Structure formats: C-alpha cells, structure tokens
Amino acid sequence: MSADIVRELNEARKGAIGFNVYEFPNPIRSLVTRVTSQTYKGSRSVENYLNLMDALISDETGIFKANNVDMRMLFINSLKSRDTHLESMLELTNNGKQVDGIDSFKQNLVNMIRGAADRNILSNADLIINFSSRLLEDAKIIPSKIIFDRKLVRLNTSILYKQNKFNLMRENNEGYAALVNDFIFDSIDIRNNEHGQALQTPLDRIPQLLRTIITHIGIFHLDPNRVLDIILDFYVKELDRNYNFWISLLKQSPWIQELVLGNNAEGGSAVIAHLMGFRFIRLQTDEVRNAPKELYYACALLIKHGLMELCDIIPYLRPSDEDMVKKKSEYMEHMRTEIKSNTGGLLAMFGALGEDGMTERMERPKANLTKEDESNDRTYTANDVVELTRALISIGDVRHAGLMFVEYDKLIDMYPKLAHNIYRLCDVMLDDVYEKYVPEDIRENYKNFERRARNSEIKSVFGSIREIPKMAEILVLDNLKDETHDLKKNERYLFFYRDWKRDLPKVENFKDLVNVYLPVMRMAGYKTYLASNLIAKLMLIIRSILERDRELEGSRPYCMAIIREVLLPAVSFSNCNPGTMGSLWELLELLSFQERYALYGEWSDSFYKKTKECELLKQRTERAVKSVMQRVSKNDVRQCGRDLGKLANSNPTIVFNFMLDQIQTFDNMAPYMADACRYMSDFTFDILGYLMTEKWTGYQKGKIRKPKMKDDMIPSAWLRALSVFSGMLYKKQGIEPTPLLRYMIVRLHYDDAVDDLILFNEFITKTCGIEIMGSAMTDDQITSASCSESVRAEAFQSILPDNRRASKRVVARLKEALRTDDTALQLIVLLYRLREACLRENMVTTGTLGPRLDYVHQTINQCLEMLTSIFDPDEYAALIPDVSTLYSTYCLPEYLVMHLTRPKIQRALRTYEPEGSEKPNPDEPHPVFRSLIEEIPRIITDPCVLKHITSEFYVMFWQLSLYDILVPEAHYQAAMKKQSDIIAQCRDTRSTFYLTNRPSVVLKTERQAQAVLDSLKQDFPRHKADVQKTMEILSGSHSRWFPMDADRLPLISAIIQYCLLPRSVLSEVDAVFCYEFVMLMHRLGVHNFSSLTLFDKVLSESLPTALVSFTEYETTIHARFLYRTFAKMSEWHKDETLYVKEAQGNGLIGFQKKWNAQTSGQGVAKEDLLSFFEFKRVMHKWNLKTTLWIEQALQSGEPHQIRNAFLILKQFIPHFPVIRDHGQVAVRATEALAKREQKDNLRVLARSYLGLVEKSKARWITKNAFMGLEEPASAKEPANAPELKAESSRSDERVSSSERRRTREESSHASVTKRSRYDDEKNRDSKRDAGKDSVRESARERTREPARDASKGRSRSASVKESTRDSHTRETPSREQPRTRDHTRENPSESVRESTQGCTRESALDSSRLSSKGSTHESHPSSEKSRADRRSTAPGIHNDDSNTTLGYHPSASTSPRKRTRMEEEQEKEKGSKRHRQV
Question: Which residues on adjacent β-strands are paired with residue 1152?
Fold first, then answer.
C-alpha cells in the first residue's frame, strides 16, 4: 500500500470521529469526491483508486461502522455524480458540440466500475440499482442496454399499475387461518411453569417457523406485508413474555434480510415502521382510545434492535411536532407568568376561611353530561412522544432517548416523571465505580440497613421475622416496579425486558463520572431530588474518592463538577430535605474553604439563572422568606427561626441573602435573627459564613460598593448592624468563627482596613465580653484590674447581657480557631502593621488621622485582652513565640514585644520554685528574667539608652503589672463583704430577694455567691504572697537598675522616653501602673534615681507633649498618669506631715537638692532634702505651667490641641485649678473659645468644662495662700484702681499673647517636623543642639539690652552673667565642680519664657532643658550671699548640670518689703516690654 493511500486512509479515519452527515464541509465526503474526480480525469491511476476504495469500504478497524459512516454509499454517490457528468457530455456530443477528453473520461469511469465489480468491492445489485444502463453496458455488467431498459420498463409498470390478483376466499379461510394456527402452535404451545405462567418460546423453532411462513405465502399467495403485520400483532401481544423470540424471528425474516425496499438492512425497515405507525393511527382515529403500553415498548425494542428507524415512527405519534411546539410555548409562557406575578400557587385553590378558621378546597362545577355526550366527546389523550421516550429509557436505549430529548428540549420539564426512569439507569451505571471506590465495610453497613428494612417489612406483614416464602414472578411493563414485591399477594415483580442493563454505558473510574455518567444525568435536568437512593450512592462514591485524593491524583476537579452540577441542584429542589443537606455537608467538609466558597458563589449567582424552573424556584423561595421576615418579632423569633431553617435546608443562599439585606436595612433585627438561626445546620452555617463575608465587603450586584465609614469616622449603619449580627451569631450558636478571622486577616493586609475593625470589635465584645472601654474606666475598675480574676470579672462584667462572655463551648471553638495557622499572632502583627500604615498616610488631616489611630489602638488592646483572658497561662505561653522571634521575624516594636511577653514572664515568675534549697542570688538577676535581660540589647533600637538605664530595669518595668506591685486590701474586703451580703439575703427568709424570686433562683444565686466568696478568700492571700515575692526581687535588684556614673537628666529622660511615655499611653491600667511604679521606686530609694526631677519633667514637660503629639485616646490615657501624679503632689501640698512622711521619708533620696555620684546611693541629711515650703513653691510652678500650656492650647485654634486640653482639664478638675488667678485664666480662655468657635463639638466641650469648673470655684485660693505666705495688708484702693486693674489685665494679655505666639510657632514647627511619638537619635541630637544655640543667642541678646534702672540693671546684669555661665557649663560639663541653681520668686512673664521652651514632644524627651534667666524681682542681699556660699537647686530656674537637682534656699523666699499692687502692675508692664524687645 502506497504512502499516499496510507495518508488518505488516516485522514478518513480521523474525520470519522464525530462524523455528521449534515456537516459542511464534510472531510470524508470531500476526500471521496476528490479521489474519484482525480481518477475520473486521469490524474490518478484506477488501480490506486480501487486500492483506496477497497481499504475504506472493508473498514478493517471498524471505526467507520462505530461512527455510522457508510463509505460504500459515499463512493456510489460520488461515482453516480461522475456518471451524470458523462451523460451530460454525451448529450452535448449528440447535439453536434465538440467536447474535449470525453473518451478518456468515459474509459476511466468504465475501468473504475469494472474494477469495483471484479474485486467484489461493489455488488452487481449495487451497480444495477445506482448507475445508468449505458455505463453498465460499457462495463460489461449487463449484456445489452436495450434489453435491460425494456425489462426495467415492464417491471416498473407491473409494480405501479398492475393489481395483484388474490383468491380472497382461499386467503381468508385457509391461508391466514393456517398461518395463525402455525404461529400459535410454534410460539405459544409451551408448557407452563409451576406458577401457571407461560415460558419463553425456544429460539430453535425460528428456522422452521420461517419456512412455514414462506410456504404459506407461496401456496396461498398471501400478501407479504399483511403477513408481516400479523407477525407484528403476535409480537405486540406476547411482548412481555416472548419478545426475544419475535425479535429474533424478524431479524432472520426475508423482510429484513432481502425485502428492504431500497433501505439498508442495518438502518431498519420502513415497512415495519409504517405498519407500527398504522396501529397508532387506528387507535387515534378509529377506536379513539389510548395506545397500550405494549405498543410503545414494542416500538422501542424494534428501534433499539435496528429493525426500524426512530425518524420513521415519529410522524405517526401524537401530539404532532406542531402541537409539541405549541405545548412548549404554552409551558414557557406559563413559567414566565409565574415568575413575573409570583402567584400564591395553591393558595388560589382555597376559598375563604370557614367558621373553624380552616380553608376548604373549592370544588369546580361539573357539567351534567349524558352517556351519549361522553361517548361523542371521547378524545385521544395519550402523549405518544412521552410514552415512547419512557419506553426507550426503560429498556436502556440511552442513545435514542437522548435524540428524543434533543428533538423535544423541554420534554423533561413538562413531564418530570420521566426523570425517575433516567435515574434508574444512572443507578445501575454507578455499580462498577461503587464497588471500586467505596470501602467494603461501608457497603456492608448499607446492606445491613437493607436487611433490617426488609425484616421490618416482614414483621409488619407476618407478625414475626421469618424466611420469605418463594413468590411468583410477575412480568410487568413498569420498569420502576422491577425487583419489588408484595408480601401480601406473595408476588415478586420483574421488568419484562431483562437485558436493559446490558447496553448501558459503563462508569469505571472517576473520569467517567464526567465523561459518561454526567451526560446521562443532564437528560433529566435538575430533578435529582426525586432519587434519594441515587444521591446517597453518588455521595458515597464522591466522598470515597475525596478521601483517597492523594492516591487518585487529579480526581478533585471531577468531584467538584459532580457536586456543582448534580448534588447542589438536588439540594435546591429537595423541598427542604435535611437528610440530603446533612449528607452533602459530610462530603463538603473534605474540601478546602476556597473550593467550598467557589461552589457557593456559583450556586448563589449563576445557578438560579440557568433555567426557567430555577428562576421560578428562586421567586417562590424569596416570597416565602419575605413572608417569614415580615412577622419576625421578639415573641415570635423561634417560630420564625424554624420556618427559616426549613427554607434554608434547600435554598440557603436565597434565604441568607435576603435575611442579611434585611438586617442591613433594619438594624434592630440583628439580635433577633441571630437567635432565630438556632435551627440551622452546619452546612447552612458554612454558607452563611460565605455570604456574610461577601456582605462585609459592601459588595452590591451591579452597584457601587457601599461605604463602610462616614466622613466623621462613624461606621455606617449597615456595617454596624452586620457586625452586631455576626458577633451575636457566633456567640449564641457556637459556630466556627474561622470565616470572620480569615476575613480580618485578609483585610488587615490593606491600608484601608480600619473601616472593618468594627467587625472584630463586636465579635470580641459579644463572644469574650471584652468591651472597648475608651475613657470610660472608673477608678474602681482600674483598682479591680490589679486584683485577681474573680474581682476583675465582677468589675468588668457588662451591663448588657448580650455583651457578656459566651459559653465555654463557644470560647473553646474560638481558642481552636486562634491556634490554627497562628491566627492570633497574625492578627496582632497585622494590627500593628495597620497602625504604621495609618501613620505613613499623606494628605490626611489631624482630625481624620487621630480617630483612625485611636480605633486601631483600642482594637489592639481589645485583642490582647482577649488573648490573655481566654487562654490559660500555659496555652498563652505556647501561643506567643519568644522575644527574638517577635522582634526579628515579625518586626514588632519594643513596647509591643514586651507587652506580649509579659503574661509568659508573669506565669513563670508565679510558678517558679528553686531547685531544692537553692535560693536566687540577690546579686544576680532573677532566673525568670535572666534570659529576657540578655535579649534586651538586641531589641533596643537606640544603643545609647543602655548607657543610662540597665536591661534589668527595662525588663522589670515592662514585665511587671499592677497586680505585682499593689494589693488593694480594701477592694478585696469590699468584694468579700458584697458576696457575704448576697449569701445572707439568700438565707434570710424575710428578705425581699428571697420573697420575690423562685427557690431555684435563690439557690442558684447562693451557690454562685459562695463560689465567688471562696475564690476571693483563696485569691487574697495568694495575691499578697505574689506581691511579697515581687518586692523581694525588686529590693534585691534596684541597686543595679542604673549605672552609678549616669547623668541624672539623661537618665530621667531615658526613663520617660523608653518606659513611662510608651506604657502610659497603652491603656489606663498601664498608666496607673506607671504612676505606682514611680512611687514604688521613690519608696525603695532606688540608687541614682531623682524622683523630684522625674516629677518636674513629667508635670512640666509631658503636658505639651500630650497636647501636641498624642491622639485623643492617648491623651485620655496619659492624663490618667499625669492626674495621679498631680493628685499625689497635691496631697503632699495640703499636708506637711504627709509630705515629710512620704516624700522625704526615712532615708529616701528622691527629693534631695544636691545630687552627685557620691550621694546618689547613700543616706541624705534632712537639710539636703527639699523642704515643705520649697515644695509649695515648686507646686506653684507646676500649676503655673499647666495654666499657661492649657491657655496656649485653647487659644491655638487647632481642634486637636483644644480637644486634648479639655480632656486633660476634665481629668484634673479635682485638683486643678486651685489658684484663683490660674482658674480665671482658664475660664476666660474657655469662655472666649465657646463664643468664637464654629465647630459644635468643641463648643460643647467648652460649655461642659465651664459647668464643671463653676462647681469647683469654691475651692479656689489665692497665690499667697497656696504658697503659704501671708496675705498683704489691705490698703486703700486709689481712685484710678479700676483703670489700673484694666490696664494690668491688658498688659497680661499682651504678654501672654506674645509668649503664646512664640510658643505656638515652636509647637507647630514641632508637630509638622515629626508626627511619630518617638524620634530617632539623630533628630534628638539635632534638636538638642538647636536648643543650646537658642539659649546662647538669648543670653547674648539680653546682655546687649540697655539698663533701664540702675539697681535693677545691676541685678539683671548679674542674672545674665549667671545664665551665660550656666549655659557655658552645660556645653562643657565638669564633674569636679558641683553646680547648683538659685531660685527666687517666679515672675509670670519670665515663667512664660521658661515654659515655652518645652512645647514640643522632643523637648519633653530631651535630656537638656532651657534655663530661665533669673527673676525680674529684686532679691534680698542675704539671698545673694546664700547663692555665693551654697549651691542649691529648685524647679523654677533650671541649671542643666547633670549632678544638680531641684531645690530652694530658705532665704530666697523672703523679701525686704511688701510691694504695693501698683508696683506689681508696673513691674509686669516693664517685663512685657522687655519681652517684646527680645
């Protein structure tokens, strides 16, 4: 065989796959036409052509037969075309026209025909039937064309016009009678079985019967078609018992073997189709009765066995094609009407309510028809198309049944009962794959279920379990009754056609589930809910495949396709079947959440748009959901929940979509709907999690996403409602919170995730009972935070029941979700990342940035509180990695690393027990802290910090909590007394509580109170022991906290910058801890620690930092620390005894006035400590600076500073203002602000503060009274006193305004230059140098200022020189010469100049401080002498020597005479003028 033939043969086989005779262009037909034309024209040899023709028609591989490609007819048709072409050219030649090449064409065609006949490629019959007589004569197929044409004419005339003559009498009486008699004896005369049923006729009788039939036709001249009709009658009548015999008879009969009437025997006989069709016509028109089932099954078997074609019988069926199209149009119109109007369905069939409140079905009036009318109105009601389709499906003819569904595309929807027959086939198709993949133990369990069901049925019929008696086998035409039985009748039903399983497609592996099985399932549409057994079997197979996913590589996509196209639609149309949904959920649990959510998304979006039935299902479900949602109320929640749960069992996506939309619209429905979801299943909760995730994004189909946050940073109502619903749902139903945590982790990767934090806040609030306190914490709650868990739980228990902690089951699920994939740690890290992202935002106003930062800050605190509250110490230690991992891997800041590590260290500290009798060495760090202390140098970003403070102090400060250093005994006693009172009330039979509650409630309350009381009695001594252990550690280690050679001011600055400021803005409890720890350091007398310096820096410099740099929430927290410190100083100020006891103490060094390396760790003489009178002067300075900073902030015009100022003022209201002059300044500034401010929120704050300060005016005192000085003698007020007073007031305003302007410039410059809380070392160094340059420049200017008064000039010159000297000594400090500072009375104008140097946050953290340049008042000579003889320090005028502290010389407080009010006013005026000149 040549290469060309091989190539063309392969081309033909490739084109045979998917061959369609109507396809154009057709590759096989084109190939045959091309090679025939080439041979006909002579470009191809006849031998080559015949070889190709023989190879294609012989079909050795069988591929053409398998794809219904008739190569013989294709070649015959192609040769006929050439024959026609040749006849046309010969006709032209006969007419006298010359045609070139006609002889070669003719010879080639003759050779082709002759060669095909010689090689038996084509039979003589094929050639005689299809080609012209001229060509046949030339090819020697027939001897003569003339004789052949004559015989052909006679034959045609005889067939068409000559009537056959039959002996009708002989035919009727003898021929047909004999034929029928032979049929009866040969096919029916068979011995019956034991049940009296006829057996099948043996097939070996067929040859004899065929000879008998042929003999009768020949002897009696019977009409062959009528004989065939009689055979078909017997075939139909004996179909259920003897179909195999008659089918075999027809296959071997001459009607199929020879009398095909021009049709191929393999394509079926048209005569048989017509004869079967005439039976339908007779029933439809003559007898007017429905066709029997036997007729449909007879036709189906004939079609399946190839005895007739489906297309030949369809024209005889009713309804006709036109009627079926009309029915389809009516059905579609009905569906559109139902979808559009969404009618009440069965409600329209019911009348009005009856007397008993029930409805009765309306009865349609029936016409009175007589028997004659009924007979005249008989119609043919059977649907032959449906019944024939059912018959084809029943016998397993999937191919022809599929053709019927293609021809009538809505047939399965109009007649859904056909789906039962399809699913019967599908069930059998799964047997092989069921046996292959489903484990044997599971199969045995299901067989055991079937046996139990059968035993139960036997027991119900016979009363006891026994063996089933042998039953009679009844052949039925209903395939759905196959393999069923009736025990009462003792009958077992079998479908008559036993070979229906044989030709079904085989499903042998998971790929066949999609390639073979799924196309058959699609024939039934979305009716899988009708076959519950099939669904269960399919789910077992899919589940088994998924469980062996690693073994069966690539099987998951096929399983997903089956779930998507079969199982989920089965749930939707299952009419609220919870069993189907539960079984499906067991399967879906094996998928990842991405795969499940992909299925849910397609189910929700595209499934309900695929068909009209799906659209109608959606409309009806939505109507039912609306009906339920319309009657949701507080008293009807559970019933509505049951109804919604029932609807959600079939169409959860529709139910939850509508429910969530309603919750977003009506936010008060959120708690009720969360309670109504108690009747949902795990599957529906999983879908609800997906839909909530979609709703949280604000996604709207076809619309713009809904905004999550309003312009004023208030969450949108729809998001708040969803957040409340989500939190309540996870709390009440105890479902897996993974969807919300997963959503938060994904969103926190984006910089706009602040809007979604409300979801996390509400979730923690509802499930863990941890609310965002903000600034709402009371002193009692803060004190409770330092107690045991029992006291804390009582103090922080929410008033709202919905915000209380959930059950243990819910908390356990939350803990498990937080452990999975380090979810808890991811949340903390991503929240910090979000905070940093907010700080990096550009073009954001302070009013927008501040609330965003506060929101993130509060969320971090809430999340940390959640972790420490729900996890046990051991669980928390396993959850959080070590310090180095947190810092290096997750890049967390130092304060957050220490905050996360604190619970682990505290657990280790409380559970630490030395080995044997070994005790910790007091000269070394405690073993619990040792490893952490070693890690500190690697996590501190500024290495210079450890030059001033040690790692041990840093660890002690950050790892201790308020619980470790404070035992609020009174709080414990009050809590125990409260529980004792409750127990007493429960036991007192005359108490109101006992009389107004049920005994069970009283007993439960008593048990709970007793449990709490017992817990408190155990916690109180344990708390004392823990604090005692901590004090021992601190007492033994505080001497190592600070280097002995450290400078005092850099040390204090480092403590403030790296310890106090970061922790005092974390939370209010941490702010109070900072205060208590500072006081503890003061009481311990920590070496080289000047508590007076720290108090001065905190009260003098922290306030501007809070006003400018802190957010509103941070200011509120930090103000708690400032207030506690200020309140303690105020207590000492009021009581000298208390001051001496606590401030000076016995051997305390914190308030010493002289400070150097030699005295920092030794006892201090009494006279070296700051006296009570000097302390009052210092307190006056702190009050004055606070007043000036507050006034400056209120007059700055910056909403951020104004708001922070009022937050601090409200905190300070019990102790500030106390001096009347300071209070009037604050009141005037607030009143002016309330008048000029346009923003309502600031105006409200101003008026609120005015109301508070009005109540405290009674406590105001004069400056002299505050400082412990005598009031000046009352002199007669001059006549122009009011004018002088007004002038003085204006002078004060001018001074304060100029100072305020300079301070505002510095503050604004600082706020623009640096927005973050902590500066790096370079910025601090540069600002420190700038501060020193400013001091030197100011000193030079003042030295150049001309003297205005001789005595005053001398005093001022001395002050300038001293300031210059102090400035020089700051630049070149000397340890050998201790330096002191002088203090005189503060002048307000000089105090303003001094105070404005600390405006910015950087100045609050800097170690250097600008010095005030002396007082404008005259000093007593003794004061000058004292300044020369003794060096002392005090906080009015700073000298930045690192070895000098704050103090006053006793003589500095006296003056030679009392100045009059006029002199004081003039002095103020001069001071303001000098300030303006500078």
Answer: 1169
More confident call, 350 vs 541: 541
pTM: predicted TM-score of the whole model, two decimal places: 0.72
Which backbone phi and psi does 1269 adopt, to 5 degrees? -100, 160
User: Does residue 28 register a pLDDT over 60?
Assistant: yes
Local confidence band at 1477 (pLDDT 50, 70, 90 cut-offs): very low
User: How far is Cα 387 from Cα 390, in angstroms, rounded to an integer?
Assistant: 5
Round to the nearest angstrom and report the end-to-end CA distance of the chain: 117
Q: What is the pLDDT of residues 709-741, one digit of tens each?
A: 887 778 899 999 999 999 999 998 888 999 999
Question: Strand 472-476 vs strand 491-495: parallel, antiparallel, or unpaired?
Answer: parallel
Dist. CA 1226–CA 1214, nearest whole Å: 15
What is the Cα–Cα distance from 59 to 68, expressed in whole angstroms? 12
Q: Directed axis angle between helix 3-16 and helix 27-41, to 10°?
A: 150
1307 C-beta neighbours (distance < 10 Å), count: 25
Q: ω into residue 1217 within 30 of 0, thus cis?
A: yes
Helix (H) / strand (E) element for 657: namely helix 652-665
* Helix, strand, coil percent content, the chain, rounded in steps of 5: 70, 0, 30
By the 8 A CB rule, do 477 and 293 touch? yes
Largest CA distance in the chain: 169
Structure tokens, 352: 């009005």
**Integer Cα distance of 960 and 899 in angstroms:** 10
515: phi then psi, degrees, rounded to nearest 5: -80, -30
User: What gap in Å lies between CA 823 and CA 760, rounded to an integer?
Assistant: 13
- Which of 214-223, 366-375, 544-553 is modeled with the greatest confidence? 544-553
Q: What is the DSSP letter of 172?
A: I
171 is written with which tokens?
């035919």
Q: What is the pLDDT of residues 1198-1220, one digit of tens each?
A: 998 999 999 999 989 999 999 99
CB under 8 Å to 961, separation ≥6 — which residues?
786, 902, 906, 1073
**pLDDT above 50: residue 1396:** no
Rounded Cα distance between 1457 and 1417, Å, is 12
Selection from 1440, 1269, 1419, 1313 nearest residue 1368 by Cα: 1440
Query: Which DSSP state fits 995?
Result: H
List the Cα angle 1076/1080/1081 in 5-degree steps. 120
Nearest to 188 by CA among 179, 200, 203: 200
Query: b/e per residue, 650-663, with b = 16+ CB within 10 A?
Result: bbbbbbbbbbbebb
**CA angle, residues 1322, 1327, 1333, in degrees to nearest 5:** 130
**Separation CA 34–CA 914 (nearest Å):** 102
Q: Residue 947 — very low, low, confident or very high, per pLDDT cuts 50/70/90?
A: confident
Question: Please, are residues 1174 and 1448 in contact by the beta-carbon 8 Å criterion?
Answer: yes
The torsion of the CA quartet 277, 282, 284, 288, rounded to 10 degrees, works out to -160
| Exposed/middle/buried for residue 797 (C-beta within 10 Å: 0-12, 13-18, 19+) | exposed
Alpha helices in 371-439 (DSSP H): 371-376, 384-394, 398-407, 411-414, 418-429, 431-437
- Smallest CA-to-CA distance from 640 within 601, 674, 592, 602 is with 674
Q: How many CA atoms lie within 13 A of 661 on its CB side?
A: 13
Helix-helix angle 1199-1212:1112-1134, to 10 degrees: 40
CA distance 1054 to 1236: 41
- Taking Cα atoms as reference points, which of 696, 762, 756, 697 lies closest to residue 727? 762
Which of these, 652, 525, 687, lies nearest to 576 by C-alpha position?
A: 652
Q: What is the CA radius of gyration of the chain?
A: 52
Structure tokens at 98: 């010359």
CA atoms within 13 A on the CB side of 286: 6
